[in-house]
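Hey, resending since the last one bounced:
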Amino acid sequence: MREGHGRARTPAAIQRLNDRHSSAPKAHSNPSQGHSPLEQGLSPIEYAALYGHGKAVLCCSIAVRTRGMSVDVIVVSYNTRDLLRACLQSVARAANEIENLHTFVVDNASSDASAEMVRTEFPSVQLIALDKNIGFGPANNRGMRAGNSEYLLFLNSDAELTPGALKLLVSFLGGNPNAVIAGPRLEYPDGRFQLSCRRFPTFLRSLWNTAGIQRRLPNQFTSLQSWLAESDHVQGAKIDMVSGACFLARRDYFESIGGFDEKLFLYEEEMDVMLPARRKGKDVCYCAEARVIHHHGASSGEHQASDASLYHLYRSKYFTFRKHYGFAYAFLTFLADFLVFQSSALLNGLRGSTSSAARNASFCLQGYRASSSPRTSK
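The structure tokens again:
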């Protein structure tokens, strides 16, 4: 087994971490108070895994047989025909790894002939062609309900499975009964590492990012950063959230939370489906051995920073905060965001310079107002 940087870690070593975690202080304990590596008999790497930056423990990475296990692969498509083709080709290759593999494409009324391409080139794929764009989460729900496999692989249309990736993810969940979701190592098309694991958003993390402090102090107060550093992407790590670009989930868990919340059109789906796992005492884990290529932002148009994207970014943020943390928490987060944007816009105006702050303030306000209303596709 290997960690994110290739350091070998045996199942016995990982089990050693989990055994020690039962008697070790929680992640927020002060390791200097009688908990040195030597006193605990831990190697520096094991010690860091227990106490470093919120990585409390590791899941035990045990290889299990994937024969007889069934997987439903669900791909939501929206105007990404060429990327979708490459995605489905990678899934077709993975069919040799899993005995019972079923693929569902839910097309959100694409205008680029994506649906026709699937019908023509991938006749074994079950296509669910919608007559309007209902959003990312709701479309995934349509795919989930169309199948009945034990495992669900949610795969972006701009992502591609590398050989063996799906088998490794299925084997990982099969060997870790308490884990309900596992995410792979994401890579850019040129092979570079792509951030794959996040911490749950909070008021302070939101303010840290909105105020731009995260950009100015990238190596300071790392616990306030949304994304885990590359060095924290450790094989088998139990983390808050994996990227929604690709993750494997147990069907029984997803059905227990009602699937994706259909009031969310786009963004923050990861928090909405993975925070309940933590509260249920279940694990979300990172499987670095499984590699997936991700053309970041292509399936959502993030690179365009469109008005619709900004609207849903803020609406989904305040909706999930209200849902999981309460009204007051969501309001305070919105108020802090809005005041930061307004102050920045005012200062830039006085300097005679332009910025995106005023635009962000506008969509921040629109998003908050809409967060308590029924979902709209905008």
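The domain at 70-196+233-294 is CATH 3.90.550.10 (Spore Coat Polysaccharide Biosynthesis Protein SpsA; Chain A).

Sorry for the duplicate.
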